[in-house]
Amino acid sequence: MKIIKKTLLGLFILLAVAAISVFFWLQSTKPDLNAELQLKGLKAPVEVIYDDFGVPHIYAQNEEDLFQAFGYVHAQDRLFQMELIRRLADGRLSELFGEKALPSDKFFRTLSFHEHAKWTIDSVLMKNPDAPFVKAAQSYLKGVNEYIQNGKTPVEFSVVGIKKTPFEMADMQIIMGYMGFTFAEAFRSEAISTMIQNKFGPDYLKDVMSAWPTNEPKIPTQAQESVASSSIALASMANQLTDIETNSPFPPYHGSNGWVIAGSKTKSGKPILSNDTHIAFSQPSVWYEAHLECPNFKFYGNFLAGTPVGALGHSQYGGWGLTMFENDDVDFFREKANPANTNQVWYKDHWENLKVREEIIKVKDKADVKIAVKTSRHGILMNDSFDKMADQKDPIALWWVFNQFPSYHLEVFYEMAHAKNALEVGKVVSKLTSPGLNIMWGDTEGNIAWWAAGKLPKRPAKVNPMLILDGSTGNDDPQGWYDFSLNPQILNPKKGVLYTANNQPADMGNGLVPGYYVPGNRASRIEQLIFTDKKDWTEESVRKVINDVTSSSFTGLLKDILPVIDKNKLSPSAKIGLEKLAKWDGSHHLDDVEPTIYYRFLYHFFVNTIKDELGNEVFKAFEHNSNFKRNMASFMRNDASPWWDNISTKNKETRTEILTNSMNEALASLEKQLGNDMTAWKWKKVHTLTHNHPLGILPVVGKYFNVGPLPAPGGRETINNLDFSVDSSGTYKVTYGPALRRIIDFSDTEHSRSVLPTGQSGHFLSKHYDDQAEMFVNGGSRPELMNRAEIEKVKTGKIMLKP
Q1: Which helix (H) or strand (E) holds 444?
Q2: Are the beta carbons of 565 and 295 closer than 8 angstroms?
Q3: Staple 708 to which of 415, 690, 798, 801, CB 3.0 to 4.6 Å?
Q4: A single Gene Ontology molecular function, please (predicted)?
Q5: Of 122, 270, 428, 330, which is closest to residue 751 (Cα–Cα)?
């Protein structure tokens, strides 16, 4: 017995020593925010002051030192995030995670971001080596690499087994390429559109994939103001892309809200800008905040991992916000393959050789995988990137605006940060090519402006760019480019308000820009709340709008479709559910019951209308398709739609039957899931937000890397757009939403306010890892400080960087 006790005591001591050792090791990996360090290459000392939310405020005597110091502190907080996004975009995740990452690597290696980065470096950056934006980028890389060489190793590097390697200019460009891909909805939509067109015909297609619905709100423009084969295999591409994005260690971009109110309508007399970018949630947060200051430059920005220029931000003169333009800048071409030579395709009257290069993907614990990347005159052939398309007879080529030009993002965002007014910004943003971005601007001179920036192709009149085109004849090829003056835009509108919510811009006199614009729900609600006679807007009153959780569009839809339901055939609980929905104002507060009923009804409606035609695999991707979401309301109002009939049955179902059955099934499934007490079906029980870290999947320890779950107000296409998949689970785990909420009153640029979904730090033991998470779901905010005296008062750390 004594031996057993001694053995157990010994084991306990060993475990305790091991636990203490692990604890101190983990603590030793945390960044030291109070230090004096030497940084090679600095010309003069630099101060970095951390405020009470972990935001670095960097003070330097020149710009090159400023950006070098920023690179160092950015890497100190977010090196693992930087490492993952460059590996994801470059198709190098399999080196870390093995075969399960191969589909993602094959896809991104085929997209050829590295080749595009080399082109940009050679044709833009190296031709202007003395340009300030090039020097800023090079200095930033110096700082990042100084931290990689001499700084602490992030915990994740040790857990995953990542070897620290220097960052290069190409990595920076590759990351920007990834941003461009996630903005391109055509990757997810055009194969499905073609499948529906080919298999079921135009009557089916027009109900769910048509252009902008007639009565939905369009973004006003300056011009408007001045005039007052195997279709299933093909569609599987969208489903596989959905899987790749769902499992991605870095989130895709989805949408956003933004508006600017002129000084004539604000209490301060200066413009107020509001912006919340919609991005899939992850941990750490997508955006990293920093305040950069040196003589002649003072800027507070939001930065993507691995990039030196703020994608969002403001100076003492002005600032901007972003949303996705949603223009269709991708076309897919079906090429005619030469049966005698797999490296040739037909064009007009002859066989053309494809360009071919070999890519080698290294796979952990497995042999290297070789892929051939082939390119026609229309673009990269995509078939080998997708499992069920590899054997298709005719290859599909990707024509993408992004690949037609080198990238000017670095230059554009550097110059915007230095711009003083709207006229300067208008000249700068005209250089953007792809992805298309809505850029909203306000400045202290009183200007407000919006530009839909991006290169717009001229397509033949007969071409429907939302379907896969014919590459063999040349008849579907793009015919050139529109001048930037024809892009949707507006400067100082008479209404004193401008906004974008990823909806269709109005005509600039050259026809509507084709695109994958989202439903008009958010746009309608924004117009309802800010297109008013109110002339005393403040940051506080604007914040009530940015946190709004009501969709008035849902109430209008339900008013039209609920009377169609046959009440005589409803179950008792379904009758009560219908009555609740009939009185619903569209709100998505935590204690509301109606959204729980509405989305369950929506799921059964989806199953009963579209799943029989599409099948399980395509249905999964289609439910979240932007075109379908945009057209869903008009489809539900269309009594003659062919989708109402279930093709799997002999009878011809009607809209009344489908809607009635969907309501009965919804209430029955809710009772099974949540019990018979309908008052307990509160939105907070089923709608939650978890910020998942890439290591959150690990057993036991993974939960310490994730943040949440947190009950969250908001819903699909409310202004506070906390979206989710509508599936059989009956729970609505938030997948994407505002990656920040920031408001700038240009009467006081030193006290803008913002909030991040979790926090600044990438280290899971830092207090700034999740110190904004509760604030975020509760609609709160904290200051973006730019006044040094006030920053000193809330200082939590100071790093001195010396030459």
Answers
A1: none
A2: no
A3: 690
A4: hydrolase activity
A5: 270
pLDDT band at 114 (very low <50, low <70, confident <90, very high): very high
Q: Which helix (H) or strand (E) holds 484?
A: none
What is the per-residue pLDDT across 260-311, written as a single tens digit (0 to 9) for each? 999 999 999 999 999 999 988 989 999 999 999 999 999 999 999 999 999 9
| Alpha-carbon distances of 354 from 336, 339, 758, rounded to whole Å | 12, 14, 47
- Which 3 state secondary structure label does DSSP give 348? coil
pLDDT tens by residue, 732-772: 999 889 999 999 999 999 999 999 999 999 998 999 999 99
pLDDT for 742 equals 98
Report which residue type is found at 517: Y
Alpha helices, DSSP H, located in 476-536: 521-530
State residue 468's pLDDT score: 85
Amino acid identity, position 651: N
pLDDT exceeds cutoff 80 at 643: yes
Instruction: Please report which confidence band the pLDDT of residue 426 belongs to, taking 50, 70 and 90 as the band edges.
Output: very high
Sign of CA dihedral 405, 411, 416, 419: negative
How confident is the model at residue 699, as a pLDDT?
A: 76
| Pairwise CA distance, residues 679 & 498, whole Å | 40
Contact predicate 756/776, CB 8 Å: yes
Q: Concatenate the DSSP letters of all residues of 384-437 into one string.
A: GGSGGGTT-SS-EEEEEGGGGS---HHHHHHHHHH--SHHHHHHHHTT--SS-E
Contact (Cβ atoms closer than 8 angstroms) between residue 750 and residue 787: yes
698's tokens: 């690990």
Please give the mean pLDDT across all residues of the chain: 89
537 vs 542: CA distance, rounded Å: 7
Q: What number is the average pLDDT over the span 363-379?
A: 95
Nearest alpha carbon to residue 245 among 258, 257, 254, 235: 254
d(C-alpha 798, C-alpha 789), whole Å: 14
Q: Answer whether residue 670 shows pLDDT above 70.
A: yes
Q: Kindly report the CATH number that applies to the domain delimited by 46-181+288-306.
A: 1.10.439.10
Which of the 8 DSSP states describes residue 655? H
Cα separations in angstroms, 446 against 323, 416, 502, 747: 22, 17, 25, 10
In one letter, which amino acid is 217?
A: P
Q: Phi and psi at residue 787, in whole multiples of 5°? A: -100, 120
Cβ contacts of residue 291 below 8 Å, gap of 6+?
55, 56, 57, 58, 299, 300, 301, 784, 785, 786, 791
Report how far residue 65's alpha carbon sits from residue 108's, in angstroms, rounded to the nearest whole number: 34
Q: Which two tokens stand for residue 553?
A: 């569009």
Between 48-57, 197-206, 391-400, 422-431, the lowest mean confidence (pLDDT) is in: 197-206
pLDDT at residue 228 is higher than 50: no
Does the bond joining 709 to the residue before it have cis omega, within 30 degrees of 0? yes
Range in 25-39, 86-100, 403-417 the model is least confident about: 25-39
Preceding amide of 435 cis, omega within 30: yes
Helix (H) / strand (E) element for 256: namely strand 253-261
Please answer whether residues 652 and 641 qualify as being in contact, where contact means their C-beta atoms are separated by less than 8 angstroms.
no
Q: Using CA atoms, how far apart are residues 138 and 314, in angstroms rounded to an integer?
A: 22
Q: In what helix (H) or strand (E) does residue 6 lie, and over which residues does it extend?
A: helix 2-28
Q: How many other β-carbons are positioned within 10 Å of the β-carbon of residue 586? A: 22
Q: Is 589 helix (H, G, I), strand (E, B) or coil?
A: coil
Tokens of 327: 């223009």
* Alpha carbon distance 178, 200 (integer Å): 34
Query: By the 8 A CB rule, do 488 and 508 touch?
Result: yes
Interatomic CA distance for residues 215 and 94, integer angstroms = 48
What are the DSSP calls for 184-211, one per residue?
Answer: -THHHHHHHHHHHHHHH-HHHHHHHH-S
Question: In this structure, what token pair is assigned to residue 724?
Answer: 């989710």
CA 766 to chain centre: 26
